[in-house]
Amino acid sequence: MSSPTTPLASKRAPFAASWRPWSQPVDEELICRTICGLLNKVTATTLDGIAERFAETIVRVERSGDADAMEVCAGLLVQRCVADPPRLTLFASMVQRAVDEAEGEDLRWRAVDPYHLGNPAGSLQSTLRTAVLDELQRALGSERVEDSLALSAFVGELLVLGVLCCGDVLDLLNVLFTETGKSSDYHCVTLCRILRRVVSSTEASSLVDGLALIEHIEGILEEDTISLRIRYMMMDILDQAFYPRPQDVFSSDLQRSEVYGLRDALDDEDDVTGISSRIVAPPEAHNPASSEQCYIEAKALIASRDLHKAEAFCRSLRPARRCRFLQALVSIALASGEEGDAQLVATFLSKPTTRALSEATPGILHKAFEPEIAALEDTVLDVPAAYRLMALMLSAAALSQYEFEDLAARIVVRENAARDRLLDEVAALAIVQGDETFRLSAVVEETSEDEAPSSEYAIAY
After folding, report:
1. DSSP secondary-structure letter at 142?
2. Rounded to an integer, what distance in angstroms lies between the CA atom of residue 213 and that of residue 192?
3. How far apart are CA 268 and CA 62, in angstroms?
4. What is the distance of C-alpha 271 from the center of its chain?
5. 179 near 148, Cβ under 8 Å?
6. Rounded (5°) CA angle 446-449-452
7. Which of 118, 254, 394, 442 could potentially form a cystine with 295 if both were Cys, beta carbons 3.0 to 4.6 Å apart?
8. Which residue, among 50, 26, 49, has the nearest Cα to 40 in the 3D structure?
9. Is 223 left (phi over 0), alpha (psi -120 to 50) or beta?
10. What is the residue-averaged pLDDT of the chain?
11. How far apart are CA 372 and CA 352, in angstroms?
12. 289: pLDDT confidence band, cut at 50, 70 and 90?
């Protein structure tokens, strides 16, 4: 037994070092197997769950401070990008999720310990930056074409997602621009793999300025020795850099309205008619399809050509949703640019069942056609036959002459030529003036290949 006079502190073992988040060791082999398994399993449908597990693994490695384990993770990502280019976007999304989670982890620790300092050199962001850029430089030097294209696309994705910044890729882009100026098609294609993702991103304007793309491309176009292929590719990138056209994250306007809860006159009308519909509507009408479902069914109709199924679906909708379904049909047929799709929609609109449903709700066809007709002058830039396709569908709808002229007057243009152009196209489809409606039979007769269109605009197609 110890003496009562012996201080208690002298008998205690010294305190262990205080716990730090990076004091947890990791098994490098286990981490390697985990990362490989996650990269093998990731698909578009499992991205959220896989990305979350991937982020947890990366954060655990960063906590340990094991730089070798982090280099293994970065190396596995680079190898998988080279071996599986179709899933580059998924891999880049996983990296972004892991980087964001690691930054959030540092912020949380800094809230507890103001003197907490992370280890940027051992983070996935810095390690992957070094690994992918070095591997791309080696691939360019050894002229491994497929590897270079895959890695350059991955660099573009990381740059767009913010994992890489403009300063990280400036040296690489300078090399690519220099070799492209020497008429190297190989380096030009690699360069375009990066730039096309930049100019189509939502942050295109800031990235174009940060990389000084316009100045570099204009310098290349001043060279007389570049090939026509390089000149065309650089002019295309320059046009997109001047006028960025970012990709829409939504597949349709209907989906955007559903996600953001946007409302318009159709939704208000739906609420007003909802009281009476509960009394007279059949049971299946109590749960009408969403706007997105209307768009999906419209696409299915165009693909399957099943008019009976489309009639049943249209009959089950409330008036406001029915209008959205018809609007989706017109929009999809017009965007396809195929006369067969427009003819299918015209056939559907001319069926007695569809006309009866339209007459039950006055003005439904007018509202269905109005958005696409208003933007017709812009649509014709992408679909040269837009006026004829629209006239084909309009001529099958049960619209009066007054309603049609009112729709034609809504085309947003600087001059009145667009209104006359649409009128000419419908006139070519033999409008029946007697009953102020349009015959579908006239559509079939007048659109034969043997007869030339009477509109001077149709000749320009």
Report:
1. T
2. 11
3. 53
4. 32
5. no
6. 65
7. 254
8. 50
9. beta
10. 76
11. 24
12. very low
Partners of 437 in the β-ladder: 432
Residue 303 CB-half CA count within 13 A:
6
Scan for tokens 């994250």, then name that residue. 249
Burial class (CB in 10 A: 0-12, 13-18, 19+), 214: middle
CA–CA distance, 64 with 27 (Å, rounded to integer): 10
Asked if pLDDT for residue 224 goes beyond 80, the answer is yes
Q: Report how many helices (DSSP H) and strands (DSSP E) the chain contains, helices first.
A: 26, 0
In angstroms, what CA-CA distances link 140 with 84, 225, 253?
19, 22, 42
Residues 6+ apart with CB under 8 A from 60: 24, 26, 31
Q: At 290, is the pLDDT very low, low, confident or very high (cuts 50, 70, 90)?
A: low
Considering 165-174, 285-294, 367-376, the range whose residues carry the highest mean pLDDT is: 165-174
CA distances in angstroms from 80 to 125, 154, 158, 349, listed in the order given: 17, 11, 15, 51
More confident call, 276 vs 269: 269
Q: How far is CA 210 from CA 137, 193, 236, 241, 450, in A?
A: 22, 18, 19, 12, 56
Nearest to 345 by CA among 409, 384, 392, 383: 392
Phi-psi region at 305: left, alpha or beta (left = phi > 0; alpha = psi -120 to 50) = left
- Other CB atoms within a 10 A radius of the CB of residue 305 amount to 14
Cα distance between residue 162 and residue 148, in whole Å: 21
Give the count of alpha carbons within 13 A of 447, CB side only: 21
Which token pair is 114? 């103001």
Alpha carbon distances (Å) from 48 to 53, 87, 159 = 9, 14, 21
The answer to whether the beta carbons of residues 190 and 176 sit under 8 Å apart is yes
Q: What pTM was computed for the model?
A: 0.53
CA proximity to 173, closest of 212, 205, 120: 212
Name the maximum alpha-carbon separation found in the chain.
122
Could you report how far apart the first and last alpha carbons of the chain are, in Å?
106
